[in-house]
Design goal:
Largest sheet: 7 strands, mixed
Low-confidence stretches: none
Number of helices: 0
Structural class: mainly beta
Order of helices and strands: EEEEEEEEEEE
Strand content: over 45%
Mean pLDDT: 94
Shape: globular
Number of strands: 11
Distance between the termini: 40 Å
Length: 130
């Protein structure tokens, strides 16, 4: 089973950037859909971005509207890692960020559903100061 560990969180000023990494072990991340989710205190876990890898159509990326144009999800197969590059950060991006792996090959809004992911990392805190 694929195991995931997030890193790269921290404190940043509004307008700044952070690069989160989701490192896989045990299996190859390229064989799974990988999603990034976030959860702020008192709120539900929220979809951020996903990289879906249905073999018959190649990989596709999906983003929540609130992060489109600011965040980019990508994969480094050599490092077995999925990256979430976050630019132009805002205070409302503050949350614990989690990466997750799913094997059901989601498409479109299916990838937004956390129930489609069965392996989760422990999370990394992102705090954006105003």
């Amino acid at each position: 089973q694929l195991q995931l560990v997030e890193s790269g969180g921290g404190l940043v000023q509004a307008g700044g950037s952070l690069r989160l990494s989701c490192s896989g072990s045990g299996r190859a991340v390229e064989d799974y859909d990988i999603g990034w989710f976030r959860q702020a205190p008192g709120t539900e876990r929220e979809f951020v971005a996903a990289l879906s890898v249905a073999l018959w159509r190649g990989k596709r990326t999906y983003y929540h509207d609130s992060v489109k144009g600011r965040f980019t999800i990508s994969r480094d197969n050599a490092k077995n890692t999925v990256i979430l590059q976050m630019n132009t950060l805002r205070p409302d991006d503050t949350a614990v960020y989690y990466c997750a792996a799913g094997s059901l090959f989601c498409s479109g809004h299916e990838c937004f559903d956390p129930r489609r992911y069965d392996s989760w990392g422990q999370g990394t805190q992102v705090t954006v100061a105003s």
